[in-house]
Each structure stands twice: as C-alpha cells, then as structure tokens.
Amino acid sequence: MPVFLANQNDPIAAAMASYPTQDPASFYAHWVQIRADPTVIARTIIVQGEVAGDIVSWPNKGHREVGYWVGRAFWGRGVATAALRLLVAELPDRPLIAHVAVDNFGSRRVLEHSGFIVVGEALADDGVREWTLRLE
Length: 136
Hints:
Order of helices and strands: HHHEEEHEHEE
Strand content: 25-35%
Radius of gyration: 14 Å
C-alpha cells in the first residue's frame, strides 16, 4: 500500500491522470473500502518482484469499469498493457468501461492496445474532460 500511495502522490502522474492526490489517511481509508467490497477485483502489479502499481475493476450502473495506476519508473515498458490484458482475460463481464483524461494519451494507448475503443468524450463530475472507452 505504501507504493500505491507513492504512485498516487507523484505530481507528474497525478497531473497526467488529472486525478487529485489524497492525504495518507484518506488514501488508506479508500483502500479499506475497496478491499472490503466483494464486487471489486483489485490486483497488485508486480514486475520482477517489485510492486509497480495496481489495477482494479468494479461494477457501475450495469457494467464493470477498470482502472489502473502504474508507477512512473515502469512507464513505457508495457507493464500497464500486460496487466490490463491479464485482468480483461480474468473478467467474463462485458462491456468493460474505462475513463481517461483527454490529455493522458499513454493511458488511452494502453486501453486501445487491449481492445478498448473510444465511444465518447465528456466532462466528468470533477470538471475533467475525459474519454470513455469500451471493450465488448
């Protein structure tokens, strides 16, 4: 969990994801909720014995969503794409939905490499412009 927190608190990654950082207490409380919810599938991404990040899927309005966060030291190495492909193979539910900030081209490429297609662009509740991607 400390690595997940450090990844989330990386100012460059947080800006790219357009995701606000959280103080440690809020971050850990959020993960307590994630881990306690039996409908959520959460995995740690490990690369050569090192925690690289996390990948999560949860139900939302009749479909499953996916999200992931990979530490900057692992960017550009195919880590997120490999993790997403493994999670997609594990999940029988379709469609799968993902949201990504329009400025986050790397994350959009990860999703597209895994078969997701852009189905829309909208302003999220937090004011961030984001793409919605879908995998059938």
